[in-house]
Amino acid sequence: MKLKLLLASSALTVLAGCAHTQSNQFSSKDMSPARALHDNVVVMDTHLDTPANLSRPGFDITARHDPILDYSQVDLPRMIEGGLDGGFWVIYTQQGPLTDFGYQTARDHALMRAMAIQRMLAAYPEHFEIATKSDDAARIKAEGKRIVYQSIENSYPLGEDVSMLRTFYNFGVRMVGPVHFANNQFADSGTDLTGPKWNGLSPLGEDLVKEANRLGMILDASHAHDLTFDDMVELSATPIILSHSGTKTLYDHPRNLDDARLKKLAASGGVIQMNALGAYLKNLREQPARKKAFESFIELSKSFGDDPTPEQREQLLNMRRKIDAEFPADMADFEDFAEQLLYVLKLIGPEHVGIGADWDGGGGVIGMRDIAAFPLITERLLAEGYSEADLELIWGGNVLRLLKAAEDHAASLKEN
């Protein structure tokens, strides 16, 4: 059970009491103009936390799951229904102590998460294909398969050996974020309650940026402190991304970016991918009773470790369903998500905006509870006057441009 998702419990994708009344308005058989356009472009999400589910006993990525029953949001049937061609599948590691033992434990966890992705690719070559180059996406889509780029969320598992990044590059990783919820050896986090430790990137973090540039990887500033973002934009030889973030103007949260920095991002050629995690979209109602119930849930989850048994997982699921039934969560809805998306599009243009909803990591809103609802975004953007060319950029073109820039820079270093 992934602690990151649990800590985002105030923005749960579903409500046990009312989730069955929510339905996605599109299906793979819908041949409306919006659906036809949606199917025509390369549709990618830059933050799929689904690898956390791949190691679960009994989880089958090719079978349809129900977010009401197991809180899963991504699988092959729903990717097809929602027209999601793929995206960046995340190797996430929870932040731990900055010690040799902590680094070793995190490294092993990250390698196992990477291996889970490799097992999926090996088990279902007819459905999924690894992508490592910017031009892989269109080819894989044309072959009727799902695109599997990979990213690292939280570079903590690298320890103090930046050369470890090459190991993950060899696994196929092409995006890397230095930090998550807490400051680490590389950078300051936007949500560390103690405040900045390094005032941005640490010296080791600067080395990480340079190594990512050398290898040809996109740098991801989601979760980074504003000062870390500033350093990354300044130091990176290629444009950076925020793989799942939002706008501070509409909701002042440390995970979101202010207008000045969004404009700075765009001026540098970078891209922000808009998240759909409710707690970062709006100020949700405080629920002390629910929070207290989840404290017990999180403690139980921690006691089971990163790989609970099937029996332990069922115990956790039953406990979580009970909490949702007794204390329904306050949630953001699709209009809250659309408001942020449209605001940022107007501010910096479709050349610098995409989608990274944070599926299987806490993302999802009322009206868009899993990836099957993705065509709703296309429909809304068309209604707002955005063109097919704009949609091509927003759904995949922008992140592929960044990957191409990273590839070209790495190639230029080898030539010199």
TrEMBL record:
Keyword Nuclease set for record: no
Keyword Signal: yes
InterPro entries per the UniProt record, alphabetical: Metal_Hydrolase, Pept_M19
Alphabetical keyword list: Signal
PROSITE patterns attached to this UniProt entry: PROKAR_LIPOPROTEIN, RENAL_DIPEPTIDASE_2
First and last residue of the signal peptide: 1-21
Protein name: Dipeptidase
Organism of provenance: Hirschia litorea
